[in-house]
Each structure stands twice: as C-alpha cells, then as structure tokens.
Design a protein that fits this description.
Layout lengths: L6 H9 L9 H15 L8 H15 L1
Helix pairs in contact: 1-2, 1-3
C-alpha cells in the first residue's frame, strides 16, 4: 500500500540530503527552491509538474 506524504514532509526530508552526493545538481536546485518556498510559507501553491517532480525525487530516495 502506498503511503501519502505531505508536500511539507517531503521537502523537509529531502532537505536533509542537501550537501550530499545523493542528489543530482538539478535535484539540489529543485529542493533548495522548494525549501525557500517552505520557509516563506509559499509552498501551498505548486504546479502539478512541481508536485510530480517532488514525488519522483522523494520516491527515488525514500521509497
């Protein structure tokens, strides 16, 4: 059964991978961008493409 993770929890967990070699350069930039949006409380409105990218990166590292 698939688990549901909130956008906030996925960004928070992926932020822990920043500064490691686990993320590609593109993933690092994307996670940093999402982290900034989280810090600015503007993570509530992300596009479907951003949501898909976030889920893809999260699943790659944590599922």
């Amino acid at each position: 059964m698939a688990q549901h993770h909130s956008t906030r929890s996925m960004v928070e967990r992926l932020t822990g991978l920043l500064g490691t070699k686990d993320l590609t350069d593109w993933e690092t930039g994307f996670v940093e961008s999402m982290q900034r949006r989280l810090a600015n409380n503007s993570l509530t409105t992300i596009t479907e493409a951003q949501a898909t990218a976030l889920e893809t990166i999260f699943n790659k590292h944590f599922v």
